[in-house]
Amino acid sequence: KVINHLWLAPLTKGGNLPFRRLCATFEAKVLVSEMSYARFLNRGNPVEKTHLRRHDSEEIFGAQIATNIIEEGVRSARMAYEFNADFVDLNCGCPTHEVTKRGLGARLLRKPAKLAKLVEGLANGSPLPLSVKIRLGVEDDKPALKLAEEIENAGASVLIVHGRTKEQRYTKSANWNLIGEIKSRSKIPIIGNGDILTWYEARDKMALSGVDGAMTGRGALIKPWIFKEFYTNTSIEFTAKERIELVYFKLTTFMKEYFGADAIGKKRFDLFMPWHIGFFCRYRPLDEAVYREKAKLNPLLQTRLDIALENEGRIEDLEPLERLLRCVSEEAHADIAEILFQSETSEDAIEKLTRVAESSKLAEYELSVSSSSSSSSGRESSGDVDDMRG
């Protein structure tokens, strides 16, 4: 069930149920929850338990946990089973200090034999199939092949390989050649992860490595409809108005339904929606004919892209509403989120946002970021997403 798919990666903050539901509307088939600390989950922590909630539209749902103790992990896996998850995923890839200082995430990669015992214990005790998500190593990728072999022999059902080391975080290009070597030696399904912004990059990396599936995190945050593109092998370039209707407003609706539309729900919305808009604004219509071959040389997620692409002319040549949606100003993101929350319909939101885009406010937003290093030349950085713990 999990092979030949493009998976939604486990994402801190981004892996909330409304966003996963949005991805499901765009045909995402395999979706993984935000990471839960097994220890806190077992203590009944309400925040950790929300990560296990599944929406009816999620076809195949996996719950990711972080643990280094067999009994603790098995108990969490049983809880995931009770929440109707299809599988449980062990996080062995998170590079952040918050996680590794607890002996979790990528810290587990330092001791392959101990990790193998953990995997064996979880695989034997869990009522659900176990997948394991790793990086290639800690300081370098020398342990990668041995790690994969140990995890497979220990009983993992699926191995997900992020093609970077812990120390590389998200700054270097993912090593899909090494992912392919792992696949060539494995008998269990291997899912490759790293540097997938477009459907054609996913297809090309799968073909290069021979993996059984691919996983995307940042690519989905920027363009949630990447899954539909993947299954149709066709680029879908929504206009600004279409993105407001099908992405921005739909996610707003899902958040209102999940968090509530009252004052408490609004606080939750304000925590999540501007953050998501900070990824949506990075969307660019990356024409397959222009960018597919370029992406084979340098991943598009690792490429600095103009606010307006070369074939689009200058920033000033873009429609005002398109310029607004591409604006990297955090103030703009907060204001867009407020308009979305207060709008009754997508048409209402489009009308209000168009008025803002055609006013002097747009220039104010753009001016507010023009002096920063990331936008002084009219460019944006692909960014280092350190809070993506999965």
Q: From N to C, what is the helix and strand string?
A: EHEEHHEHEHHEHEHEHEHHHHHEHHHHE
**Unreliable residue runs:** 373-387
Distance between the termini: 21 Å
Helix content class? 40-55%
Number of strands: 11
Overall SS class: alpha/beta
Q: Specify the number of helices.
A: 18
Oligomer: single chain
Mean pLDDT: 93
Specify the biggest β-sheet.
9 strands, parallel
Shape: globular
DSSP strand content: 5-15%
Rg calc = 21 Å
Structure described in brief:
By secondary structure, the protein is α/β, with parallel strands linked by helices. The protein is built from 18 helices and 11 strands.
Q: What would you say this structure looks like, in words?
A:
47% of the residues lie in helices and 11% in strands. It is of the alpha/beta class and 390 residues long. The strands form two sheets. Strands 1, 2, 3, 4, 5, 6, 7, 8 and 9 form a nine-stranded parallel beta sheet that branches. The two termini are 21 Å apart. Mean pLDDT is 93; it is low at 373-387.
